[in-house]
Amino acid sequence: MSATIVSLPDQSTARIPKVNYLTKENGILSWLLTGDHKRIAILYLISLSFFFFIGGALAGLIRLELLTPQTDLMATDTYNKVFTMHGVIMIFFFLVPSVPATLGNFLIPLMIGAKDLALPKINLLSWYLYIAGGILAIYTMAAGGVDTGWTFTTPLSTHYVNTNVLTTGLAVFIAGFSSIFTGLNFIVTIHKMRCPGMTWFRLPLFVWAHYAASILMVLATPVVAIAIVLVALERTIGIGVFDPAKGGDPILFQHLFWFYSHPAVYIMILPGMGVISETISTFSRKRVFGYTAVAFSSVAIAVFGFFVWAHHMFIMGISNYAVLVFSLLTMLVAVPSAIKIFNWTFTLYKGSITFETPMLYTFGFMGLFTIGGLTGVFLGTSGTDIHLTETYFIVAHFHFVMVGGMLMAFLAGIHFWWPKMTGRMYPEKISQLAAVVTFIGFNFTFFPQFILGTLGMPRRYASYPPEFQVLNVFSTAGATILGVGYLLPVLYLTWSLKYGAIAGNNPWQATGLEWQVQSPPLTENFTRTPIMDHEAYDYEWLERQKEKEVTTSAG
Amino acid sequence: MNHISPVLWEFLVKWLTNFALIPPEASKIAPQMDALLFFMVLVSLIGLTIVTLLVTSFCILYSKGRHPVAVQVEGSTLLEATWTIIPLGLFLVMFVWGALIYFRVYTPPANAMNIYVVGKQWMWKAEHPGGQHEINSLHIPTGKPIQLTLISQDVFHSFSIPAFRVKREAIPGRYTTVWFEATTPGTYHLFCTQYCGTNHSQMVGDIVVLTPEGYRKWLDESTSGMSLAQNGERLFASLSCAACHNARPDARGPSLANVYGAKLALSSGGTVTADDAYLRESILNPSQHVTQGYAPIMPTYQGQISEEGVIALVEFIKNLNSDYRIQQTLNTTDLLPESEGSPRRPGPAAGGPAAKAPAKQGSAAQGMVKQ
């Protein structure tokens, strides 16, 4: 490992700026009624982590049950509830809001040179909606849970289960509005609040990725809200939209559900890709290779993402020709992801690379996302989908993309911007260790599941034929390592709040506007409106700035 | 190892004995599917290796220690075009190859033997044409294309046979089909792969592939004495279907002889081919599917017949190539002594108009008796 690029202020004299967004006001109310995007981001970070650990604990229970072929830890009903809640919490209360609501909220105004998001009160409202939905989800769990699977498939969810479908549906419905408001806020902010000189092609790629994800949030989320309302109406008063006995169509629900839930995976992954663009540029000291290609590939993913939903339904008896079209479109959506991977790789070319924790997570992301993306092609290909769908291959595929990709990106981002958010550094060595442990644990957990799926082990099974045990034992063992990998950051990041080294404005020598202000920033972000007079990722500009500072202080 | 840790030893042995990356290939389509899978794995491995090699070598060559000052490179249209076009080309090859397999799996050949499968929470019921029923198992011969017609009585289920590389959703209220030709005798897993509620993971069974001789033996041993069509005939009688569908000149319902596969004109306009799905719909939801020239008077049988019952009726109608059988059911419903004038079995081949004529005479005679 080569020398670090961290440039910390002189530690004997260093101080955290007395006035910043954290110290401006005190008391719990100043947080709960805040309109400051940075404080709302912190609120999100705390609540998201809470839900992540609930979802993670449920995942632990799933893996424990699958340690043996029989159902010995819990009854099948309980198992069904556990994996349903794992899915609901992880998707709607962690992955969808994870990067946008924390990092996006914190950074977008800073990156584009704005004081706040365009609609600060709506921003706070969306946190409250998120919390309301989250509390309802937790209440559902306490009140006996729900066992429909996170996909709420009809007619199982409308006519056959007698668990808390309505309250869970309501929780998701409310959380959906939180997501719509966040997306709306980002779109308006990015359009209207860019500082002078901040043209579209000077925006950091992080902002581009969030812009693409926001379009998906605003356009796709209402559809799942409608689908959930229809499920509720069908369940309560039997309107018969999905009931074949009343002339309804049970497959219609899946169309509606996947019309949201497929774009939703891009809502989850695009902001993560934005993080990767920032970290990889900073730690290789280079402008992202092919900036425009990366920016437009985000938009391409968002656009194509709307037209591939039926690839979740290849074996459901939709027309063979529809399958042909959706399979082809799925192949097209895979291309922009491939472009991104190669562009990031070539960003390293002729760079000057260092290996801090965010960079290690970034490498983890690139490897795991490549595997996740390529296995997605196995599933988008109609023929092989027949064999692989509804098995552990699917489970492994989306965990590679969502956990291997998104969560790695989230952790990369949290470590990268931690100094900006808190004004203090995280401890480098132990966090590098955590990144490596996470990577190893992740592969141990999820790689065997590809083989299990190819062998035919169906997903959502509480018991399984004994010949699948060995691979399941591997997977459970890996999950234990992964658990340690996730627990470590919680511990040392909390520790660093008090004992971490003072970070200074720009410890990574990064070029973004957010790094040119104090850490933690002022409530109003900038003392005067910044003027963007250079391209994004312009490291030469940064060098010139530093020279200027030196001459000024010397003179 | 054994004296170090018996548990670990057992674990290792179990792993090695069961170590496999793919399930057995027991159908004609399996090797074709696997060929594509191998191709994709190969492409993925190459792709992953390229990315890993590039990242690793760049990390070594351009680490800060070796390369203290970065050289700014804007991008390269040529390179970017390369890594857009090559993956796109490879993905398109997979798309075409996959689509060929997909169409093969879901387009049954005309000579396939049809077996009905009903999924319900939480079991699979198979109905063989010879009247054999099975629960959570399916016996089939090698070397003969088998078509499954699937339906669910409640929620979505999915009929998955990993060893055959086929899978098809069983949907409430709709028939779906899949076919395969087994190649290797043996017992293979049958899974329900669509989450269907509490005992989803217990909705499993065995696919028993037998040699043609073994299959014949099994058929003989498990026959209930009645074929599926005969079961349907019995149901046809007990539901008094023949009260209207009796082919008499004044019949209130259309004749059902030879209706399967025919193009029918509907009173709502338009034509429809009478396939399994149409027959099922006409029984359960008749007012939506009235044949031209008839009044919409047929009551719905929704909720009165199980999916198995509907299947038996459909199978009966499918095999009905003269009205003679219907006259017979009239007899059974009316419990009248058979008229001497009734012709005996016209034989399955005699489905043409010539065979129908005497049947109609018979019906007239019986009609009189009934009055």
Describe the model.
- The complex is a heterodimer of chains A (555) and B (371).
- Chain A has 555 residues and is mostly helical.
- Chain A has 17 helices and no strands.
- Chain A has helices spanning 28-32, 37-65, 76-95, 98-112, 120-142, 156-160, 165-192, 205-237, 250-284, 291-305, 320-347, 357-380, 382-388, 392-422, 428-455, 469-499, 539-554.
- The mean pLDDT of chain A is 93.
- With 371 residues, chain B is of the alpha+beta class.
- Chain B is built from 9 helices and 12 strands.
- In chain B, the strands form 3 sheets. A 5-stranded mixed sheet of chain B has the order 3-2-1-5-8, with helices on one face. Chain B has a 5-stranded mixed sheet with strand order 4-10-9-6-7.
- In chain B, helix 5 (228-238) crosses helix 7.
- Residues 333-371 of chain B have low confidence and may be disordered.
- The chains are: A mainly alpha (555), B alpha+beta (371).
- At the A-B interface, helix 3, helix 6, helix 9, helix 10 and helix 11 of A face helix 1, helix 2, helix 3, strand 7 and strand 9 of B.
Strand content of chain B: 15-25%
Strand order of the largest sheet of chain B: 3-2-1-5-8
Helical coverage of chain B, percent range? 25-40%
Strand content of chain A: under 5%
Return the average pLDDT of chain A rounded to an integer: 93
Which regions of chain B are unreliable across 5 or more consecutive residues at pLDDT < 50? 333-371
Number of strands of chain A: 0
SSE run of chain A: HHHHHHHHHHHHHHHHH
Assign the CATH superfamily of chain A.
Answer: Cytochrome c oxidase-like, subunit I domain
The number of helical elements of chain A comes to 17
Radius of gyration of chain B: 29 Å
The CATH architecture of chain A can be given as Up-down Bundle
Element string of chain B (H = helix, E = strand): HHHEEEEEEEEEEHHEEHHHH
Largest interface: A-B, 97 and 95 residues
The span between the termini of chain B is 89 Å
Oligomer: heterodimer
